[in-house]
Amino acid sequence: MTRTALVTGGSRGIGAAIAVALKDADYKVAANYAGNDEAAQKFTADTGIKTYKWSVADYDACEAGIKQVEADLGPIDVLVNNAGITRDAPFHKMTRDQWREVMETNLNGVFNMTHPLWNGMRERKFGRIITISSINGQKGQFAQANYSAAKAGDIGFTKALAQEGARAGITVNAICPGYIATDMVMAVPEKVRESIIAQIPVGRLGEAAEIARCVVFLSSDDAGFITGSTITANGGQYFV
Ligand code: NDP
Question: What fold characterizes domain 4-228?
Fold first, then answer.
């Protein structure tokens, strides 16, 4: 049986690597994105994976987008909540918009995507919800009160929902990547990036494909006994 997976923020970075890895593992895959049409078109041309544009911050748009994906590919078995943004600022300079935008995408977006899919997964007695949180949701990070709060919220959401999904064959897990070489991290000034690498015991940034392999495992039948857990993949930078 070929299962269907939907990856939010699946057109670039970690999400793109996840979408490709799931396709390589024989899933039917849809990749959602927010607005960068050029990157999405290039991704589809390179991989053959269809992309769908909507914002995870908009509940109605999520419902409509999910309906479209299910009409095209069939019921969604695996949801990867990967879409995320940063709006960094030290707290004394953080604006209400910076706080709100990060919460709406990184935390509300996870609710907005999971909620419309939940009943279908319960009825079919199978589901995999995998949310990409962050090391900074585990340990907190200077100038990221918004991001750290949202990503910590994703972990709480995962632990709570795992309990509700367990009897229905739905597993709910989170992955906390450390620093991964994507646009988000490469946008950080080089000096700051060098100081980040100096704090990673393995001495390098992670690769998006390394996170993607965790997702493929958590999606599989082999991972059916793993729920409510967090895979920490950060090169030894922080132990929970
Ligand atoms: P990128 O900035 O490289 O890519 C982000 C993706 O998310 C893009 O596809 C973007 O679409 C999409 N996106 C952003 N906002 C929305 C939205 N409102 N609705 C739908 N899609 C949206 O990010 P990364 O690959 O670096 O990060 C992926 C996830 O991993 C994020 O949740 C991030 O917080 C987390 N993470 C990343 C780490 C890292 O080191 N890179 C470390 C730990 C966690 P578009 O192209 O249209 O803008």
Answer: Rossmann fold (3.40.50)
